[in-house]
């Protein structure tokens, strides 16, 4: 194995790109997705009392009042904010082409200005909407060298930057699915929506507990998690991506403690690395139906004799469900677990 080079696409700068989330149904009094995560009514957000102080990525964030001009830096973060009931405070949504919002969320975001499509917004575009809070999946979105607004620049313009716990640079390789619960709790405090945060937390915990209960005591199949770009193959061995596999009941054939993943959660590999490990299943991120079909063709033609191919355990997961700090992490756990343990559900 080799580490991705410095020129590796943004998929290896701390997050996987593109992905579609599917899950929709109606429920009263407001909308509720099929996976059970509803859109709540905005709570009263009185600003009386002490300032909210949160430690995030080693930085101290302080909020004397409730943020009223918020930007979601990825559709997954925009969704989380809407499900917390603060859609009326959104002044921008970024990287909107990375993955579509589900129908029930999209209607709440319809009037929110799009400030970028397939990449983080340029510095001037983000600052132009005058945010007081920017919520992001990783620290990459604040790389000043890429022309993005840095955290210091945002602070100087009166905005705080909240990065998903699992997307903090020092935690990127050791992130866990349950880091999402930290984000929900933190955002609930920052936005003064404790009831919505508690409801979302309880539902998330119940969904994870249901998976754990269903697969408890079952033999764990071996799983390889990969990213495919053309004929380039990379293994995912650490980070929230690897914890998703573990939480879904898979035994990752790549060791997160191995030297290949010491500095980064992914590493470029040769097909022989997969063949030698003979995984029972292969999980791969996709950005849409076309990308999924191309990836399936590659896997079937490259690994025709692997147990994963012979048993049709090639499991596609929307890449956006693998981003840190997204409710899609739980959806990914459920998707993978249902395929690995079809008789348990």
Automatic annotation (TrEMBL):
Coiled coil feature spans: none
Organism this protein belongs to: Streptomonospora nanhaiensis
A matching Pfam family: Peripla_BP_2
Protein name per UniProt: ABC transporter substrate-binding protein
Sequence similarity: Belongs to the bacterial solute-binding protein 8 family.
SUPFAM superfamilies per record: Helical backbone' metal receptor
Fe/B12 periplasmic-binding domain segment(s): 69-344
Phylogenetic classification of the source organism: Bacteria, Bacillati, Actinomycetota, Actinomycetes, Streptosporangiales
Classification via InterPro entries: ABC_Transporter_SBP (IPR050902), ABC_transptr_periplasmic_BD (IPR002491)
